[in-house]
């Protein structure tokens, strides 16, 4: 289950209902998929063949189509990041800059971990959402955020788009002290 850390106050929010209600207030969609549907060999595999990516999409076909129908997503794929990814450090440097997109950023984690750092309302400021396998998140269109990996430095996620061109990152100027 996801864990929230509010950067200003150090407050930690745990437990499905608490996380759900906090994210709901911030306009961030949060859901959970049953990760036990995934065969064990795909739970700890971070270099995937095209066939394995297709297999993941087939296993979660119902969940993907349900989410897509509710939210208007039209296309989806699987992304895998790990130390085996060429230029992982360079990619992370890019991901770690605050930015916005012209559509939702939707990620369903199927293995490993990831953190979205999202700009909340005025009172809350930036908060971390630490995600594990089964967690599904949608960062709203135009909402400043950035992404990074956790200590395990590996993740597999299903991405859903209205149009993949919407994922182009537009830099968002923020004072450093607001983010930290
Ligand atoms: Fe993003």
From TrEMBL:
Annotated residues for binding of Ni(2+): 99, 101, 105, 145
Binding site for Fe(2+): 99, 101, 105, 145
Family per similarity comment: Belongs to the acireductone dioxygenase (ARD) family.
Free-text comment on the cofactor: Binds 1 nickel ion per monomer.
Subunit structure: Monomer.
Organism of this sequence: [Anoxybacillus] calidus
Domain of life: Bacteria
Requisite cofactors: Ni(2+); Fe(2+)
Catalytic activity: 1,2-dihydroxy-5-(methylsulfanyl)pent-1-en-3-one + O2 = 4-methylsulfanyl-2-oxobutanoate + formate + 2 H(+); 1,2-dihydroxy-5-(methylsulfanyl)pent-1-en-3-one + O2 = 3-(methylsulfanyl)propanoate + CO + formate + 2 H(+)
InterPro entries: ARD, ARD_bac, RmlC-like_jellyroll, RmlC_Cupin_sf
Functional description taken from the UniProt entry: Catalyzes 2 different reactions between oxygene and the acireductone 1,2-dihydroxy-3-keto-5-methylthiopentene (DHK-MTPene) depending upon the metal bound in the active site. Fe-containing acireductone dioxygenase (Fe-ARD) produces formate and 2-keto-4-methylthiobutyrate (KMTB), the alpha-ketoacid precursor of methionine in the methionine recycle pathway. Ni-containing acireductone dioxygenase (Ni-ARD) produces methylthiopropionate, carbon monoxide and formate, and does not lie on the methionine recycle pathway.
Pathway stated in the Swiss-Prot or TrEMBL entry: Amino-acid biosynthesis; L-methionine biosynthesis via salvage pathway; L-methionine from S-methyl-5-thio-alpha-D-ribose 1-phosphate: step 5/6
Site (May play a role in transmitting local conformational changes): 104
Keyword vocabulary terms for this entry: Amino-acid biosynthesis, Dioxygenase, Iron, Metal-binding, Methionine biosynthesis, Nickel, Oxidoreductase
Enzyme class: oxidoreductase
Enzyme Commission no: 1.13.11.54, 1.13.11.53
Name of the protein described by the UniProt record: Acireductone dioxygenase
Biological process annotations from GO: L-methionine salvage from methylthioadenosine; L-methionine salvage from S-adenosylmethionine
Example of a GO MF term: acireductone dioxygenase (Ni2+-requiring) activity
Annotated positions for site Important to generate the dianion: 107
């Amino acid at each position: 289950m996801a864990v929230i850390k509010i950067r200003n106050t150090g407050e930690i929010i745990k437990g499905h209902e608490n996380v759900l209600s906090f994210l709901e207030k911030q306009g961030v969609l949060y859901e959970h998929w049953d990760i036990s549907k995934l065969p064990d060999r795909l739970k700890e595999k971070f270099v995937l063949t095209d066939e394995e990516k297709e297999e993941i999409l087939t296993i979660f076909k119902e969940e993907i189509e349900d989410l897509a129908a509710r939210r208007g997503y039209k296309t989806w794929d699987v992304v895998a990041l790990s130390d085996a990814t060429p230029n992982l450090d360079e990619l992370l440097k890019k991901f770690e800059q605050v930015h916005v997109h012209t559509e939702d950023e939707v990620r369903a984690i199927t293995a490993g971990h990831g953190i979205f750092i999202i700009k909340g309302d005025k009172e809350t400021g930036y908060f971390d959402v630490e995600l594990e396998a089964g967690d599904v998140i949608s960062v709203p269109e135009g909402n400043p955020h950035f992404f990074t990996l956790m200590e395990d430095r590996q993740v597999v996620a299903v991405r859903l788009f209205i149009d993949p061109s919407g994922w182009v990152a537009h830099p968002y100027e923020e004072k450093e002290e607001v983010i930290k």
